């Protein structure tokens, strides 16, 4: 009887441990997304202040890691085999920032890849402005968006 209770408690404990490990990985990934967004926004602000908005298009095509003060410890560089779990990559042909999920038992991802991956792309936010008598497209912001749906359940 006591062994059965201990076995049940151990099973529950291991399940909870796996859950919290996955939620910690999720929090770390979301934190990195915010750091990358902030780096992109600072870079865009530098371009706007320097009256170099025309160079903003490079934000959508270049690796956003270059705009960070320091390269993250879990940045693996160019996307390619073999992929290491818990690591960020830059997929140069697709222009995607890719996170290879470390623990993803509770993660639903639209893209069927093994190991599970969450892909992001940089998008410039634009608005039409009236300057003098002309209407001009102007870059008003930058963001990092998921390429497909993902959800931790």
Explain this structure:
By secondary structure, the chain is an alpha+beta fold. It has one domain. Helix content is 34%, strand content 31%. The chain is built from two helices and seven strands. The strands form two sheets. It has a five-stranded mixed β-sheet with strand order 1-2-3-5-6. Strands 4-7 form a two-stranded antiparallel sheet. Strand 5 and strand 6 form a beta hairpin.
Specify the number of helices. Answer: 2
- The end-to-end span amounts to 34 Å
Q: What's the domain count? A: 1
Strand order of the largest sheet: 1-2-3-5-6
Cα-atom Rg, whole angstroms? 20 Å
SSE string, helices as H and strands as E: HHEEEEEEE
| Helical content band | 25-40%
Tally of strands: 7
Assembly type of the chains comes to single chain
Shape: elongated
> Helix/strand-derived class?
alpha+beta
Q: Note poorly predicted spans.
A: none
Strand content: 25-35%
What does the main sheet amount to? 5 strands, mixed
What is the residue-averaged pLDDT? 90
Q: What are the key terms here?
A:
153 residues; 2 helices; alpha+beta; two-stranded antiparallel ribbon; 7 strands
Summarize the topology.
Elements: H1 2-49, H2 58-61, E1 75-78, E2 87-91, E3 96-100, E4 107-109, E5 117-131, E6 134-146, E7 150-152
Parallel strand pairs: 1-2
Antiparallel strand pairs: 2-3, 3-5, 4-7, 5-6
Give a summary of the structure in a few sentences.
By secondary structure, the protein is of the alpha+beta class. It is built from 2 helices and 7 strands, in the order ααβββββββ. The chain has one domain.
